Predict the structure.
Amino acid sequence: MTTPALLPVSPASAAPSDRPCPAVRPPTPPPAVPAPPPVGAADRAVGGESLATAGLAAPAGAPAAPAVTATSWLVADLDSGAVLGGCGPHERRTPASVQKMLLAAALMPRLDPTQVVEVTRADLRDLDPASSVMGVVEGGHYSIESLWLGLLLRSGNDAANVLARVGGGAAGRPGGVQAMNDEAHRLGANQTHAATPSGLDGPGQYTSAYDLALIARATYARADFRRYVATRVAQIPAGAGTSGLSIAHDNTLLDHYPGTLGGKTGFTDLARQTYVGVAERNGRRLVVTLLGAETAPLGSLGEAAALLDWGFALSPGASVGRLVDADQQKQDHPVVALKGERPGAARLSGPITVGLGGAAALAALFLAAPWRRRAARRAARR
């Protein structure tokens, strides 16, 4: 693979706010997008003054961060909350389907996974025909647990609409979106605003690399979420008038980056490629978030692997800030206690990891992955 041309990086002695992020030019320039709203000074400093930068925040003496196409990113310790480094961590960016993480954070505590719900015509009528779907049908009956699996394994925009409607109560889908925004506020994710439950582009919909780490920390605190997102294959049983579904996990590093505990990809023409993932090594769990990445040379998954490698190479005591704490009321306490496999419940197959030795070796796999081919072929809005 040809070594990509690197953009110039200022000396390490420069002030953090003056240090450009190590960047690589993609082979094909991305399309122009509208500039996001500016971030206020107080919000930019959440988590520490070193994070109040549109450039690179990295510990003194740290090895050079990898050059990536992502326009913003962050690596943090999921357990301690220490931020190991980031690029424009508080800058607003368009989320695409990583917004589904916020849907999970907001509604998993509200919804009984054993409840069976009916899909309505309204749940499906406004979906982009090229978007990612779980495959539910109008009039079909599905458990909430099956919908979570369809959301997280296949990035199902149809599942997102159903979950938001049911979780929104009397207010329906708008109520579910409001719950997402309420949860973002509770977590201190100040740059995050949801306009759609799925992450399909909507007016004023933004997030930040820092906010996504807060959201990931909230979701990974839940045993049910961890179980769903680490599932490789789920069998959704047939119901009244519906066929069964076999859902395989799409787009994460589960099979290709050792220690991966799960992740969520996203793509729209506006957002480009986005990713949130968690990996564990030697007892450390790191979360990586990135926004605005391009398909080549590495793609969002290859860039995530490179950033995770960089983070794991840092001293456990290294940090440039912290993830602010929210209240603990939603951690590991689903509305209904997790049970063993139930008759008629989705059957799960756990993750298998295979070491490949670096982000460059991963790139060819990611570029050939079905999601990448669909994105290139159909500009799929994930």
User: Anything to note?
Assistant: Residues 1-16, 328-344, 351-357, 367-381 have pLDDT under 50 and may be disordered. The chain is about 30% helix and 15% strand. The first strand starts at residue 56 and ends at 57. The two ends are 28 Å apart (CA to CA).
